[in-house]
């Protein structure tokens, strides 16, 4: 097949203890999946279904030093457990959902909160607040064969050495199997999909020069520092 120009390379994430990489197909995100975070954002934890939104696949980055994003004065951090899908499926039953998981990683759903607030107030889509360049820093993926399936474990984020976010995976309103099952009723999940499962309370601003360190039991750590553009 011939193209008018060279296609961009497939975004990918390294996998622990192997040279093979995980090719990223899509990035799905779950909003408001921890009770305290839902409340801090003015929502009700008892909502009927998870809130799903997406980031482009090339939002993933392994870079530890990132330029401060364009068009924002209020960049926020959101630390999340990421689920890497390794098996295709649609209308997946909850009891079968974990069979579709390849592994787990730690990711940041970076958010231009000021753009999001303006869009929400105007009743407009807020894609640009979530889906910008390098908006999904991510750690190495730990395969299920190494990590097992994560149903509990501390997840936290520090900024300049001070803990801002902390919670436990067991605190998810919708568990990983439930998220996979519900999402697969809307779209057919494919190998290479990443699902960011939600963030604990304590989200807050990041400024140029800030050092972010995320950690999740059974997954590892994630380091990012932002610089002036």
**Any idea what the radius of gyration is?**
17 Å
How would you sum up the major sheet? 6 strands, mixed
What string, H for helix and E for strand, traces the elements in order? EEEHEEEEEEEHHEEHEEHEEEE
Characterize the overall form. globular
Provide the structure class: alpha+beta
Mean pLDDT across residues = 94
Briefly, what CATH class?
Alpha Beta
Determine the CATH superfamily: Fumarylacetoacetase-like, C-terminal domain
How many DSSP helices? 5
CATH topology: Fumarylacetoacetate hydrolase, domain 2
Strand content: 25-35%
Strand order of the largest sheet: 4-3-15-8-9-12
In angstroms, what separates the terminal alpha carbons?
39 Å
The CATH architecture can be named as Alpha-Beta Complex
Which spans of ≥5 residues are poorly predicted at pLDDT below 50? none
Q: Level of helix content? A: 10-25%
Keywords: Hydrolase, Metal-binding
InterPro entries: Fumarylacetoacetase-like_C, Fumarylacetoacetase_C_sf
GO molecular function: acetylpyruvate hydrolase activity; metal ion binding
Organism: Acetobacter aceti
Summarize the structure.
GO terms for molecular function: acetylpyruvate hydrolase activity; metal ion binding. This protein has 229 residues and is α+β, with helices and mostly antiparallel strands.
Textual characterization of the structure:
There is one protein chain. The protein has a single domain, classed as Fumarylacetoacetate hydrolase, domain 2, CATH 3.90.850. 14% of the residues lie in helices and 34% in strands. It contains 5 helices and 18 strands. The radius of gyration is 17 Å and the shape is globular.
């Amino acid at each position: 097949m011939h193209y008018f120009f060279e296609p961009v390379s497939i975004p990918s994430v390294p996998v622990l203890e192997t040279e093979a990489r995980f090719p990223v197909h899509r990035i799905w995100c779950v909003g408001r999946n921890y009770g305290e975070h839902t409340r801090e954002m003015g929502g009700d934890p008892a909502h009927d279904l998870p809130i799903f939104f997406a980031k482009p696949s090339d939002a993933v980055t392994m870079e530890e030093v990132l330029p401060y994003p364009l068009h924002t004065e209020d960049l926020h951090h959101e630390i999340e457990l990421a689920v890497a899908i390794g098996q295709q499926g649609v209308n997946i039953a909850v009891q079968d959902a974990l069979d579709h998981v390849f592994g787990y990683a730690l990711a940041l759903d970076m958010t231009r909160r000021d753009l999001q607030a303006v869009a929400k107030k105007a009743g407009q889509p807020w894609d640009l607040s979530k889906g910008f360049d390098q908006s999904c820093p991510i750690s190495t993926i730990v395969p299920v064969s190494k990590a097992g399936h994560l149903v509990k474990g501390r997840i936290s984020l520090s900024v300049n050495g001070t803990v801002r976010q902390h919670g436990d995976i067991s605190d998810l309103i919708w568990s990983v199997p439930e998220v996979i099952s519900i999402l697969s009723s809307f779209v057919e999940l494919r190998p290479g999909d990443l699902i960011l499962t939600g963030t604990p309370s304590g989200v807050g601003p990041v400024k140029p020069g800030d050092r972010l360190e995320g950690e999740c039991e059974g997954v590892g750590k994630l380091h990012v520092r932002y610089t002036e553009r």
